[in-house]
Amino acid sequence: MPVRHTPEAPTGIRPLPGGGLIDAHRHDDHQIAYPRQGVISITTGAGTWVAPGNRALWIPAGTVHEHRAYGRTDLRLIGLGENPLDLDRPAVLAVTPLLRELIVACSEEPDDPLLRAVLLDRLRRAPAPERPVHLPAARDPRLAAVCAMIVADPAGERTLPELAAAAGTSDRTLARLCRAEFGMTFPQWRAQFRLHHALVLLAEGAQVTTVAHRCGWSSASAFIDAFRRVFGHTPGRAFHT
Fold it and tell me: Do 96 and 156 belong together in one domain?
């Protein structure tokens, strides 16, 4: 089936219910997706990127992607004909209070040239993009099978050898595939997935202790420490700039 093609990336407001999906499509423009409320992800052939309310997602022109909302989401979209970040891959962007207000204002007044000029200027000055919760997609069916087991049981404690045996391969092969396809080790990928899942649960209103348990941390404090190391703040601030 042909991928939906919308030449001009829209600028505006797109409310989405929890679990809401915008199907796979592409634009000839670049786009920023910012969840003023809730959590939003984009998925491409290369994997999934996720952002809470103090992050935004950069989607380069021509990228086939779909959006998914977690929790009731107030999605703000900014289409850009130029590339102020000089990025040709999806990325997660830190959103300062000023950048947040500019994105919100531009989404509400898309035809205001002054607002857009100021936004572009701030984006050019923005810190380097980050990738704290990028989940690369597996291509090899053995690695994909193991990833599916982790997704089905985020708190599971099976080791790499145990998962490899269940997938009909060896732990050495899986370790090699992880490094080759993901650029990270298996424990690092599992930690990334657990953080992604934690953001989803938090957006849906789960308490921190519940999230820690359901995502495989031994305690709430261990989860909070892991979350802070990656995001620079506690889970309670995940949805605030």
Answer: no
Cβ partners under 8 Å of residue 212, min gap 6:
198, 218, 219, 220, 222, 223, 224
**pTM to 2 decimal places:** 0.85
Q: Smallest Cα–Cα separation from 194: which of 239, 135, 120, 111?
A: 135
Q: Is residue 132 part of a domain?
A: no
Residue 133 in this model has a pLDDT that exceeds 90: no
Residues 192 and 217 in one domain: yes
| Residue-range definition of the domain harbouring residue 145 | 137-237
- The enclosing domain of 181 has a CATH number of 1.10.10.60
Which DSSP helix (H) or strand (E) runs through 220? helix 220-231
Are 74 and 38 in contact by the 8 Å Cβ rule? The answer is: yes
91 and 36 assigned to the same domain: yes
Question: What is the H or E stretch that residue 174 is in?
Answer: helix 171-182
pLDDT digits (tens, 9 = 90+) for 59-115: 999 999 999 999 899 999 999 999 999 999 999 998 889 999 999 999 999 999 999
Q: Which residue has the tokens 């009909």?
A: 168
The residues with which 15 forms a beta bridge, in sequence order, are 74
Q: Residue 161 is which amino acid?
A: P
User: CA of 126: how far to CAs of 18, 57, 83, 150, in Å?
Assistant: 30, 13, 13, 35
Please check whether residues 118 and 16 belong to one and the same domain: yes
Distance CA 165, CA 160 (A): 9
191 HSE (CA, 13 A, CB side): 13
User: How many residues belong to the chain?
Assistant: 241
